Amino acid sequence: MDGEHYFTAQPAGELSLREISVELAGSPRLLTTASGIFSPDRIDAGTQVLLANVPAPPPGGNLLDLGCGWGPIALTLALESPRSTVWAVDVNERALDLVRRNAHILGLDNVNACRPEDVPEGLGFRTIWSNPPIRVGKNELHAMLEHWLPRLDPQSDAWLVVQKNLGSDSLQRWIEGALDELSVSRASTNKGYRVLRVHRRARGAASGAGTAAGSDASSEGQASASSPS
Ligand SMILES: C[S@@+](CC[C@H](N)C(=O)[O-])C[C@H]1O[C@@H](n2cnc3c(N)ncnc32)[C@H](O)[C@@H]1O
Questions:
Q1: Parallel/antiparallel/unpaired status of strands 193-200 and 182-190
Q2: At CB < 8 A and 24+ separation, what contacts does 52-56 make?
Q3: Which residue among 91, 125, 144 has the greatest number of ligand 1 atoms within 8 angstroms of its CB, and so is best to mutate?
Q4: CATH hierarchy code of domain 43-225
């Protein structure tokens, strides 16, 4: 991970673009990143674990990458679900510019890279994939999740990757306790990361009804993510 201030709106350092070679949606891609953003030299190890452990995205509708950085998650969603509209949201304007640039490189016209406040109010999401910014601190992280997770469409899932030693288990308990209509389970654990599946119950379904289709058990070693950053 690069620098401590990857989540500032306008990174201070001069913009110095670089080309990186990564694999996204099963193919090698030459993309552009820059300093002043999260993990500019490679796909972060946690993001790799997430991408290796999520099911295929829904075939259409609005999909959200919360905290998109230079775009590995949003671009994967857009490549794998070409009829969807992918919302790539970040507070870091440089990251958003890079997502636009990378979407253009890949010939994708279904990616909207924008600041959180620019997503239309009332828009619901058929899935949310995120490597959330744990380092912003608990209060801000919780406020962010309280804002976005309830915007999952009913009967839909969000997939979050969180490092175990950065508090994945306490975050799981917090989501379960703080957010009505949502249930959370551990979908997988790999390389020190947990992938949490957050399920939004059907409208009117009683809480605690156990509607998450996934198992609560972690499946150590299930992922095939490549080397950590
Ligand atoms: C752990 S990084 C993940 C970046 C990218 N998804 C990846 O996998 O490489 C988290 C991202 O969340 C962004 N972020 C921080 N606060 C945010 C907020 N309130 N709303 C949206 N994104 C935020 C950061 O700027 C950062 O790019």
A1: antiparallel
A2: 52/190, 52/223, 52/224, 52/225, 53/159, 53/187, 53/188, 53/190, 53/195, 53/222, 53/223, 53/225, 54/129, 54/159, 54/195, 56/80, 56/81
A3: 91
A4: 3.40.50.150
Among 39, 47, 66, 68, name the best residue to mutate to test ligand 1's pocket (greatest count of ligand atoms within 8 A of Cβ). Answer: 68
How does pLDDT run across 198-207, given as a tens digit for each residue? Answer: 999 887 775 5
Q: What is the mean pLDDT of residues 97-102?
A: 98
In the chain, pLDDT over 70 holds for what percent of residues?
A: 86
pTM of the predicted model as reported, rounded to 2 decimal places: 0.89
Ligand 1 atom closest to Cα of 6?
25
Task: Express each pLDDT in 11-60 by its tens digit.
Answer: 777 788 999 999 999 999 999 999 999 999 999 999 999 999 999 999 99
